[in-house]
Amino acid sequence: MNINLQEKFAEQYHKNPEAIYFTPGRVNLIGEHIDYNGGLVMPCAISLGTWVAIAPNNDGQFRLKSLNFDIETAVASNIVNEKDGTIWANYPIGVINEFIKDGKEISGLDFLFYGNIPIGSGLSSSASIEIATAFALNTYYNLGYDKLALVKIAKRVENDFIGLNSGIMDQFAVTFGEKDKAIVLDCETLKYKMVDVNLGNYVLAIINTNKPRELADSKYNERVAECQTALKLLNQEITLNYLCELNAEKFALHSHLISDETVLNRATHVIKENDRVHLAAKALNSQDLTTFGRLMYASHQSLKTLYEVSGKELDTVVDFCSGYQHVIGARMTGAGFGGCAIALLEKGYEEDFAKHLTDYYLDKIGYPAAIYISQIGGGPSSL
Q1: pLDDT score at 64
Q2: What is the CATH T-level fold of the domain 197-374, as seen in this structure?
Q3: What pTM was estimated for this model as a whole?
């Protein structure tokens, strides 16, 4: 963190915070648009994230301020079931609402948030804020929720309060992340295993296209509906709860049921992407980064042509990476429609990569991208 949050809290509230907490963002290494289709994803926590400082107050209100936004808000404990119209503040308000609905006696807290995750970049800034709030409340009040309970609370906020039909991956990844490990998560059963990510002579580069996404206003929910249509059609012959119960071979036996080309493309991506996660886990276990990199490129191509959630900006980044000899794999990460791409970049070429990618992107797009070199980090912590 490049600011002193304790000093900033004192400036804002004229008192010192009683506690400061951190929650990371995440990237998904592979397995995109799988979480709401009951399949496998492979996210990891990153070193970018959200910090929150808190202290009690005597007026019974939850006062919410952020160093990233000029707008601040305050809500009484009896009206936290309503959005206040301030986009960023609705995430902590939704979490507070869930705690109160669950019978937890919490009231009168001052919050100051600070995050270094680019907003709208696809690095789960919203999940990071949600879990930062939930972790802070749970720890400060010693409420006894386990990590999975916090994840489920945050998912309810996203689905019911914010109104986005997203899966559980983002909240799970930022909560369960471990340093230098990826999570292979079954989004249907929530069973998971940790996989060592030994990048050896490579680093994880995150490239922000600087094209923001508003997921609730995008075609994200449309993709969810298209997958549900595919599932319904397949269930004319077989019984499935999720698309990812099929592998590519079994899907080929029943794909004739889907006559709409767009719906067929969506289902094809989901099923083949789920298979790629299995292959990617094997590659990491074997420390075969070359194969892992090829799977990243294949994933991006599928997201571009079959699922249609990429775009000129993300494709420009991946096109550059595919022609840059010191990158062995790249793909969009997150839901798409803008946001970020990731790349496996050979150590020692960080500055050269950033310079040449910036020039290439600026020429093609007209404004610059932002490049970050991130560590694979751990989950929420008290500071």
Answers
A1: 95
A2: Alpha-Beta Plaits (3.30.70)
A3: 0.88
